[in-house]
Amino acid sequence: MSIGFRILKRREMVTSELASSFDDVPVANVSDSMARMTSAGPCLRPFHGGGKRLSGAALTVKTRPGDNLMFHKALDMAQPGDVIVVDASGDLTNAMMGELMAHHAATLGVAGIVINGAIRDIDEIYKLGLPVYAAGVTHRGPYKDGPGEINVPIAIGGMVISPGDLIIGDEDGVLCVPREQAEELLAAAQVKQKAEQEELTKIHAGCSDRNWVDKALKDKNCFIES
């Protein structure tokens, strides 16, 4: 086996039913339920229109910067509902994808694409509506020489993504939910969301309790001039 230039099988993955259960939960609530310790970094931003949510099982790709050969192979391997996650080292020199690959992915039923790298043809991608998150934009196209790996663990901004993990995204960004923890985190995020909705009701009614602010300052021995 050639380390660095290999294609592996994805052994396990989150179910489509569980993935879709996250569609009504803000990514921020899930992130808070993970102790605010996980992030793909603020560089991964949505480039699609309509505010469409992203959720699906990760099909991971690790490639050298500026080369999308293994990305193309992953596209051929993708199943409906998959999220193709490409670690291109955050390099913005060459675009990893344009409108042709985006349209091909949409035709295949891919749930979305996440690229730690650049894309191009963003006007067409925006109109297509397929959830696409990337680190930037450049008109300069990619090479197709390899090497690279498919279905190996990757990391983006300190966020580790294993093949089959749940990938979710909204206007706030992208988050990986480890497959083994997805059900537990869904329940925790739903509790968090309910609590926020209740607090929002109190805010609109003018009865939100703000005493916690002064208590926190007092507990930290903050001097407040009287």
Largest sheet: 9 strands, mixed
> What structural category characterises the helix and strand content?
alpha/beta
What is the averaged pLDDT score? 95
Helix content: 25-40%
**What value does the Rg take, in angstroms?**
20 Å
* Separation of the first and last Cα atoms: 71 Å
Shape: elongated
Provide a short characterization of the protein structure.
This protein is an alpha/beta fold and 226 residues long.
Structure characterization notes:
The chain has 226 residues and is of the alpha/beta class. The protein has seven helices and eleven strands. The chain has helices spanning 16-21, 27-33, 69-77, 99-108, 122-128, 182-205, 211-219, and strands at 5-7, 45-46, 54-63, 82-87, 112-119, 132-137, 148-150, 154-156, 159-161, 166-170, 173-177. Strands 1, 2, 3, 4, 5, 6, 7, 10 and 11 form a nine-stranded mixed β-sheet that branches. α4 runs parallel beside α5. The chain is elongated.
